[in-house]
Sequence to fold (317 residues):
Amino acid sequence: MLSYEDFKTEVTARFMDFMGAGYKDYELEVMPVKKAGKKMDGFSIGKTGENKKATVRPTLYFNDLYDGYLKTGNIEREMKRAAMAMKNGISYGKTLMGKLDYRNAGSSIIFQMVPREGNGSLLADVPHRNFLDMAIIYRWAVSIECSGISSTIIDHELASIMGFSEEELFDHAYENTKRLLPPCVKDMDDVVESLMADEGIPEADVDDYRRRTSDDEKMYILSNSISHFGANMVLYDDILHDIACEMGGDLYLMMPSIDEILVVKAGPQMDTEVLAGFLCDIHSDHEEEAKRLSDSVYLYSLSSRKIFPMVSRSKCI
Fold:
């Protein structure tokens, strides 16, 4: 079996052979990517001399290909599968290109929350503003479907092409995000009970679980209609204020991932240290490190309509 570095060298040297004659004028580009502190080795292909901003390029990862190689021991098979995925991605990208219109991009700009820690390189390249221990960046949402979002991060170059300052990007995103991705609140108990039922757990045990949670201890999931980039809802005071009024008091907020906010009623029945430990448990079980957002517990004050950090376990492993 090849080592990872030897595998990467082999794929880099031979991958274009698997793309076929129709891609003779394309070249492979290796793009190291840092996602939430984890190094990923990405690669894509494009026509020689092509303007990257004028295309939608799919990215594959040597890391994923190597995992497949370790299971099969067949490097040719993995490159064939990757070449097929690359061709499909290029085809889809051409379809998306027909939808790109820089003149009307303002109506498709949305927020994304990212952790500040570990994202220094990203934040140096993109317009952004700080928010608590996180940062707000901007994405151009080319296509939004129930299965996900096709979008690209807006860096300084793309913002310049669009002609938008950071303040204008924020204003557009504030207007668009809630409109394109409407908020959605779910009772955590309903989610857990549904999972228990799917796993065939007896109804008596499900009923027993339901009885264990008092109204003041109920946890809710605040996200959006497609459960992608749902943590953006923390930027909308009216949403948080309505939830706090409905629950009758201040709120504790937790944002384990970029896709959701966990909400519980603040009060003596809730220990913020316990909630912080709960976040650590979530992150220790979370397979998608790239989606990790915050280890902090925050207080949303109903009276002041402001968010305050309460406790953080930034050393969660």
In short: The chain has ten helices and 13 strands. The chain has a mean pLDDT of 84. Residues 4-97 form one domain.
